[in-house]
Design brief:
The complex is a heterodimer.
Chain A lengths: L3 E4 L2 E4 L5 E7 L5 E8 L3 E10 L2 E4 L6 E4 L5 E6 L8 E8 L8 E2 L3 E5 L1
Parallel strand pairs in A: 2-11
Antiparallel strand pairs in A: 1-3, 3-8, 4-5, 4-9, 5-6, 7-8, 9-10, 9-11
Chain B lengths: L3 E4 L2 E5 L4 E7 L4 E9 L6 E7 L4 E4 L2 E6 L4 E6 L8 E9 L7 E2 L3 E6 L1
Parallel strand pairs in B: 2-11
Antiparallel strand pairs in B: 1-3, 3-8, 4-5, 4-9, 6-7, 7-8, 9-10, 9-11
The chains are: A mainly beta, B mainly beta.
């Protein structure tokens, strides 16, 4: 049982480059979230989705876009990376029946130079 | 604004000793509170959930308490082990169908041999 899988695990980008982070879950969860985690800041919500084809902004959405074309996948895009986007990114999914427990991926460490 | 405050920010203890982590919240209306453990380089994993009617719940050497009147929760770790070194995150969810849980910034625990 893979749970929540994030791709890639590590990435270094140059300022201005673009990239897409992929989150895949095999638990048939309706809710999916993207967080970033910075030292001393905790987990901050970037964007989230409550179902296929729907997305919404979280606490820190600027500079990011998302798409949920399939229920099991949630993509996070950086169109023009900035050094301020250097962070560890976590994807999480919740079940509609019990959307109290979040299942997290292993994280993507992104460095923008 | 709904907030979750954790203390201390960091804690260092010797192996075998006990410790208690605190979580105070202003989230209202309250639904439930979860404690997560996040090992270095990994995503958070749920340890325990506390609902409004529960005062104490144990999961092995971890015991969580909840005082819904004072809006405080604690996580007590007994006979600490080196593997307990991690960040412990308190997460509170609103009742009424909110999709977005509120995360604390976490307490970093280091257990020394």
């Amino acid at each position: 049982n893979a749970g929540v899988t994030q791709t890639p695990k590590f990435r270094v980008l140059k300022t201005g480059q673009s990239m897409t982070l992929l989150c895949a879950q095999d638990m048939n969860h309706e809710y999916m979230y993207w967080y970033r985690q910075d030292p001393g800041m905790g987990l901050r919500l970037i964007h989230y989705s409550v179902g296929e084809g729907t997305t919404a902004k979280g606490e820190v959405p600027d500079g990011y876009n998302v798409s949920r074309l399939k229920k099991q996948n949630f993509l996070l895009g950086l169109e023009s990376a900035a050094p301020s986007q250097t962070s560890v990114y976590f994807c999480a999914s919740f079940s509609l029946e019990d959307y109290t427990e979040a299942f997290f991926g292993q994280g993507t460490r992104l460095t923008v130079v | 604004k709904n907030q979750v405050e954790q203390s201390p920010q960091s804690l260092i203890i010797l192996e075998g000793k006990n410790c208690t982590l605190q979580c105070n919240y202003t989230v209202s209306p309250f639904s439930n509170l979860r404690w997560y453990k996040q090992d270095t380089g990994r995503g958070p994993v749920s340890l325990t959930i506390m609902t409004f009617s529960e005062n104490t719940k144990s999961n092995g050497r971890y015991t969580a308490t909840l005082d819904a009147d004072t809006k405080q929760s604690s996580l007590h770790i007994t006979a600490s082990q080196l593997s307990d070194s991690a960040s412990y995150i308190c997460v509170v969810r609103l009742s009424g169908g909110s999709y977005i849980p509120t995360f604390g910034r976490g307490t970093s625990l280091i257990v020394h041999p």
